[in-house]
Design a protein that fits this description.
Layout lengths: L1 H5 L17 H7 L3 E2 L4 E3 L3 H9 L10 H8 L4 E8 L5 E12 L10 E6 L4 E2 L4 H17 L2 E6 L16 H11 L2 E2 L8 E6 L4 H7 L2 H12 L2 E5 L5 H15 L6 H13 L3 E8 L2 E11 L2 E9 L8 H15 L4 E3 L14 H8 L4 E4 L4 E3 L3 H30 L1
Parallel strand pairs: 5-7, 13-14
Antiparallel strand pairs: 1-2, 2-3, 3-4, 4-5, 4-6, 7-16, 8-16, 9-14, 9-15, 10-11, 11-12, 12-13
Helix pairs in contact: 8-11, 9-13
Length: about 400
């Protein structure tokens, strides 16, 4: 496997970029900006926000400044809140996305909204007092904004995952239920995932794979599959591959412009890296890796039918892992696993592929909703599935049309 390990020019990042326990830049902003609607502090600077959340438990790229700005371009606004401890140090944070729904009106009393904290809030969930402060303020915000609901989906582990160092998922869900939160019928993100520890050496990572997966990585090289890092110039190609994959596998995607923005802005910001598999110069597959703090997420994968017997997707994953490790990441998140680990689950095939790389299944408590008005919430959740069905039908037709 020496050829596989040496093929791409990856170098480990120098120095230790761990975040200091002190936040001098943050303190000056926190001291002067207070969000009266939440009763806590807000951050209005990209570097300060990203530095701050990088040091908090359960940090995630969907809580990054860049994700909030991306969603702002599609009808959402972002409020970035911070809770401090007794010494004034940041102890919790939440990027709250806000969107108005219903007919346009200048009368805010007649309008409604939804609030969403993607993969947050970020805090030590085992700290009962801090958890209470954070949830109290988020619930208060939902009431003040006349929200149909506020949704959270933090990466709090749930049984039968190994006991986390911060809290047990059972205790957290019991507390949420006591407060009036309900397990959401609309799980925006994957509840479960598979993660790989990148702190091991490459030889150990290869040894940790299942024998068949390791064989397929070697086979792809022998069969002439080559992996190259992608760039902004490849965005149209990446969308074409993704659209072909969605039509073949039966899932709905958004427009080309949406993905050019989603992928392009994160590539430009140094938070995403595409990889493209080629056979004799012909693109046959690709993936896009996102990176934040010390985690890399395999969020998008795409492939063609051509040359599938050469196992390009296996080599793609291996080279993406090597890149993430060289970039200083300690965790590789495969982004998604079945809700139920049975062959009937639609993600079973994808899970079996991911399982081969030797990762660990991680189960989370999932998304939870708090609704100030139970009646309004029930009306909304009854109508939403019908609206989504229509949108999916239209989306499939548009994607197919883009390929014709």
């Amino acid at each position: 496997m020496r050829q596989a390990q040496d093929k791409l020019p990856y170098k480990r990042s120098g120095g230790d970029d761990r975040i200091s326990s002190r936040f001098p830049a943050t303190e000056s902003i926190i001291a002067h900006v207070v969000d009266k609607a939440v009763g806590t502090n807000v951050i209005t600077d990209r570097h300060t926000w990203n530095t701050l959340i990088s040091a908090l438990p359960f940090t995630h790229i969907l809580q990054s400044w860049e994700w909030g700005e991306f969603k702002r371009r599609y009808g959402w606004s972002a409020r970035r809140c911070v809770w401090t401890d007794a010494s004034g140090q940041p102890a919790a944070a939440a990027q709250v996305l806000h969107r108005r729904i219903g007919p346009p009106t200048s009368n805010l009393r007649l309008s409604a909204s939804i609030l969403y904290v993607p993969k947050g809030p970020l805090l030590d969930w085992g700290d009962h007092s801090l958890r209470a402060r954070t949830l109290d303020d988020l619930q208060s915000l939902a009431r003040r904004e006349r929200a149909v609901f506020i949704k959270i989906d933090p990466d709090v582990l749930a049984p039968p995952s190994p006991p986390p160092s911060f809290a047990t998922g059972g205790a957290i869900t019991t507390d949420l239920q006591r407060r009036g939160w309900v397990f959401s019928r609309d799980q925006i993100q994957f509840r479960n995932t598979v993660t790989l520890d990148l702190r091991r050496g490459e030889t150990e990572l290869l040894a940790g794979m299942k024998q068949k997966t390791r064989y397929n990585v070697r086979l792809a090289e022998k069969k002439g599959v080559r992996i190259r890092p992608g760039a902004l110039a490849d965005l149209d190609l990446l969308y074409r591959l993704y659209a072909e994959t969605s039509v073949r596998d039966g899932f709905v995607i958004r427009s080309a412009d949406y993905y050019r923005d989603a992928w392009g802005s994160f590539i430009e910001g140094g938070l995403a890296q595409p990889f493209i598999a080629e056979v004799e110069g012909e693109p046959v597959g690709a993936l896009i890796l996102f990176k934040f703090a010390r985690t890399a997420w395999y969020m998008y994968g795409m492939s063609r039918e051509a040359h599938r017997e050469k196992m390009p997707n296996h080599l793609l994953q291996w080279e993406a892992m090597r890149w993430a490790k060289a970039a200083g990441c300690e965790t590789y998140d495969f982004w998604g696993a079945p809700d139920e680990f049975t062959e009937a689950d639609p993600m079973w095939g994808v899970w079996k592929f991911k399982e081969g790389f030797g990762g660990q299944v991680v189960r989370h408590i999932g998304a939870w909703d708090y609704a100030p008005s139970t009646l309004l919430y029930h009306l909304y959740t009854a109508i939403l599935p019908r609206v989504l069905d229509v949108m999916r039908w239209r989306g499939r037709r548009k994607t197919q049309a883009s390929l014709d």
